[in-house]
Design brief:
about 260 residues; alpha/beta; Rossmann fold; globular
Length: about 260
């Protein structure tokens, strides 16, 4: 089975105090550590497990500059077979639809049975790329997959619904499936895997190689425009109460009374 996985190189922001850059439309990225998007990591793992059961190849594809190679090589070290990077300064600030268009052009040059993406990305959270890419590739898609099986030329997908419910969807291949976290346990990268990954080629394409032009990419041709970013104001702060049990109880009672709760 030939599988394509779309991955994204994103900043780790969980324990970082973010700042808005001078443009007011993006975060200050200097000093941030970048890694593979969490949802995409599960998608890569699922692709490799499918390959191990059914044979075939896994190709990872991304859009970005040379800095994203660390994410691509991480995927190769885990067991992906090929890597493609689309790099072009004219792509800068393109919205998710344009990114999906770029990815679709690259994927159309590959023979594939299945395309996997993460359900969303941790930096923008649009959840847009998967469904848009499926439409551009003219193939069916299923979102928020928690389990994937195969029967003949169909995929059987358990997808997550609200309230902890799941539904099972049968879809004909080729198809696109977006992966939810928890579908598997992503493997660690081995030293041997890293050594092998460093020797593998990363194919690099420009938008010209994909048959696109200046009129197809960039902020001017995007549907979504960010006018301004801001840091949410801190409205509540945690207060730690110290002292003996009697003192703590007394202070809690005072706080409750001061707020009119008793």
């Amino acid at each position: 089975m030939e599988i394509v996985v779309c991955v994204k190189h994103v900043p780790e922001t969980t324990e970082v105090e973010l700042k808005i850059d001078k443009s007011g439309k993006n975060i200050e990225k200097s000093g941030l550590v970048f890694d593979i998007n969490e949802w995409d990591d599960y998608a890569v793992e699922e692709a490799i497990r499918i390959k191990e059961r059914n044979g075939g190849n896994v190709t990872v594809v991304t859009v970005g500059d040379e800095g994203v190679d660390s994410t691509l090589r991480k995927c190769l070290a885990k067991g992906a077979d090929k890597a493609i990077r689309i790099t072009d300064k004219r792509i800068n600030y393109s919205d998710p639809f344009i990114v999906a268009k770029i990815l679709s052009r690259a994927i159309k040059q590959i023979s594939f049975d299945l395309v996997l993406t993460g359900a969303q990305s941790s930096d923008d959270g649009y959840s847009f790329i998967g469904p848009a890419l499926a439409e551009l590739l003219d193939i069916p898609h299923v979102t928020l997959a928690k389990k994937i099986g195969f029967k003949d030329k169909h995929a059987l997908v358990n997808r997550e619904l609200e309230g902890g419910l799941e539904e099972v969807v049968e879809v004909e291949l080729p198809a696109l499936i977006t992966i939810q976290t928890g579908i598997n346990e992503p493997r660690y990268v081995s030293i041997m895997g890293i050594k092998k990954a460093m020797k593998k080629e990363i194919k690099v394409y420009s938008i010209d190689d994909l048959g696109l032009s200046d009129l197809d990419v960039g902020i001017e041709n995007s549907w979504i425009h960010i006018s301004e970013l801001s840091i949410p104001p801190v409205e509540r702060k945690a207060e730690f109460i110290t002292g003996s049990p009697e003192e703590i109880v007394s202070k809690i009672i005072e706080i409750i009374k001061s707020r009119g709760l008793i």
